[in-house]
């Protein structure tokens, strides 16, 4: 089963994707994670995209489609979760063509809806475990007092360079201008299921499970 998790920054796509990886053996393909990895390993592409990412703008379709194309060459195990991709209509068309080339289909597009005010609050307070990616929130789920990640015991926590109010505004604008048209696109194709992304992680996971059948 191949699915897309679609939603604005802070909707909880990464958190829910990690659960699906653990529970269903699916493979998470996050273009944001791939781009951050390219940056930290200092590749030429990583250097090219750094300023665009920090500003909260979208990198070119060509770059992200290329990243996804490479990943689809591998074994898909329990299926792919596309997390943060596609983000534009040309990316959505390209994904359809790439899946078709591999004899695969897109089974569901899960739209995670979250109110804008909640997104800002979530993102500004967000940090993650540098080892396993467990997400913390300064208000609702502070980093453990003993300094050890509740999931893996890791002791390094990080905040994303683009999790600040200024680039968040640009990221939200990019979502509404460039990504939200995909909701109609996938609705028209009959692939879209909408879940409320505002609830507790468990509740959202339950809704996603129901949507996947
Ligand atoms: P994310 O981790 O998904 O929030 O992505 C972080 C940043 O990486 C975004 O703000 C963009 O600059 C870039 N990015 C990630 N995925 C895409 C994509 N599918 N298309 C364009 N830019 C992307």
| Morphology | globular
- Fraction of helical residues: 40-55%
Computed Rg: 17 Å
Q: Specify the number of helices.
A: 9
Q: Give the percentage of residues in beta strands.
A: 15-25%
Biggest beta-sheet profile: 5 strands, parallel
What's the multimeric state? Answer: single chain
Q: What is the number of strand segments?
A: 8
Structural class: alpha/beta
Uncertain runs are: none
Mean of the pLDDT scores? 94
The topology string of helices and strands comes to: EHEHHHEHEHEEEHHEH
Distance between the termini: 11 Å
In order across it, which strands form the biggest sheet? Answer: 2-3-1-4-8
- Small-molecule components bound: adenosine monophosphate
Could you characterize what this model shows?
The protein is of the alpha/beta class and 213 residues long. 49% of the residues lie in helices and 15% in strands. The protein is built from nine helices and eight strands. The protein has a five-stranded parallel beta sheet. It has a three-stranded antiparallel beta sheet with strand order 6-5-7. 29% of the residues are buried. The structure holds adenosine monophosphate (AMP).
Itemize the secondary structure elements and their pairings.
Blueprint: E1 3-6, H1 13-24, E2 27-30, H2 31-40, H3 44-55, H4 61-72, E3 80-83, H5 89-101, E4 108-113, H6 116-124, E5 126-129, E6 135-137, E7 157-158, H7 165-179, H8 181-189, E8 192-196, H9 201-212
Parallel strand pairs: 1-3, 1-4, 2-3, 4-8
Antiparallel strand pairs: 5-6, 5-7
